[in-house]
Amino acid sequence: MVSLEDRSAVVALFERGLSVSSISKSLKLHRVQVHRVIKRLDETGEITSRPRGRPQRSARTPALRKVVRDKVNRNPAWSIRKLAKEHNVSYTTMHRLNRDDLKLYPYKFAKGHQLTDEMKTSRLEKCRRMMALTRGDKLDRILFTDEKIFTVEPLQNAQNQRELLPKGSHRAVNIISTVSDVFRKQILEDEVLCWSQENAKNIAWTFQQDWAPAHSAKKNQEWCEANFPSCWTKEIWPSNSPDLNPMDFAIWSILEQKACSSRHGSLISLKKALGKAWNEISQEMIARILQNFRKRLDACIKAKGGHFECDV
Question: Gene3D superfamilies, alphabetically (predicted)?
Fold first, then answer.
């Protein structure tokens, strides 16, 4: 192939009146190459070479872009796969049309608490404090707690519930009661205190809980401070922060996946499946989850106390 520099030289010499043979000898090009350059100049007024190969045809036509845009505007729940099948194009083509041409991206639904600027500031300060309180082996001495309702109905897959955007009543078992006096008697006294006396009698461990009404009741707070070595009070644990609690961002999901993938015929069956799934969680898994807690603290700090993306 003749370079653009040589093509320019051919034209310059030709315009000076040199013959094809003379130009060929002068530039050390084949006579046919020189002739083709001159012929293309005469026919098109250009010296660049003709495009080679088969012309590229794209399925991402203006008409298809308009149809897809209108469909998504009417119903953002259209999936890339269904759109591709509907218009007889590949998944990759439809994905690129949405991403590159229409600037649309699939977002899945995620639950999150509404955070005011005041809440974000508080979360930022408390996350920094918790980072300091969990250095070294201190993280291993924190008892994280949370509440979760499990139903006999199978878990719905939220992963598949997405939208394309520009940038009933069931019988259930409640793991922890939310009534203040029952919570103190059945959970704090009968469960947590008994556990600590048997397993952590000479250990300076810390009790963590969120600030649901039953937890923040004055009598319950006083009881915790009197019976546990240490407690994370409201001055340490931020409100509206399930995304920071290992129970919420990890443990409950593990139990749901293992115990709630299919419908249970009774509460007894549900409780049995939950107990089995709980016992199958290894110490290695718990250690990784605890380390992920600090990663989430760091992510929240970088987000200045706001919501954050975290793959752990």
Answer: Ribonuclease H-like superfamily/Ribonuclease H, Winged helix-like DNA-binding domain superfamily/Winged helix DNA-binding domain
